[in-house]
Predict the structure.
Amino acid sequence: MKRIVTLLSLIGLGVLQVSAQNEKESQKLLRHVVLLSFKEGSTPDQIKVVEDAFAELPKKIKEIKAFEWGINNSPENLNQGFTHCFFVSFASEKDRAIYLPHPEHKAFVEVLKPVMDKVLVIDYWSKN
Amino acid sequence: MKRIVTLLSLIGLGVLQVSAQNEKESQKLLRHVVLLSFKEGSTPDQIKVVEDAFAELPKKIKEIKAFEWGINNSPENLNQGFTHCFFVSFASEKDRAIYLPHPEHKAFVEVLKPVMDKVLVIDYWSKN
């Protein structure tokens, strides 16, 4: 029984170490924040095509390490007209350099262009 | 030995379930994205005071569930003058409603005001 307990403790420690490592790695991600607004008159269907096309990129570009997005719901009215935020994470600047001119990314930009009003991009290495 | 293997498998499954749950929860966060630029002539010391004061908020306001920030390093030149991104997460819109008028948040805004040039805020419920 003692051996089992020791074994379980070791496994427990291993799990904790992996978690801590993941936590540490997650603190080291390069964030790529893309804000978008759409041309007046863009239909919900046209906007959905863009949302879906962006959300497909992580399946097509392996350098995207994490991805999420959402629609502005801030009550502060400081969004300067931007309605959409896409939040892309990379493990390195090298991976970002592969992403930016990637054919799949370029194809997405072509989908976006006809309906896009404004774009703002800010990237940062995440610190806590 | 068979029992140990079964026990280990069950523990493994438990760990996976907890991970999956955390993953699911992390997909449900309300993100609060704050972009800042500073007045021309602001010194690095003045800017550091703001960075440090913002980074102190998670210790003072328990409704902040996650926090990270960083300085723009995008090569795309689409950052519209914004240099800083602060990325705050809440578990609910109720928690955000506590944060926004919170005395510690208001005290931070007073620290920020004298050196701030522009601010942009966009919030979203994260989707994948």
Remarks:
- The beta strands of chain A are 30-38, 66-71, 84-90, 116-125.
- The mean pLDDT of chain A is 88.
- The first helix of chain A runs from residue 2 to 26.
- The radius of gyration of chain A is 20 Å.
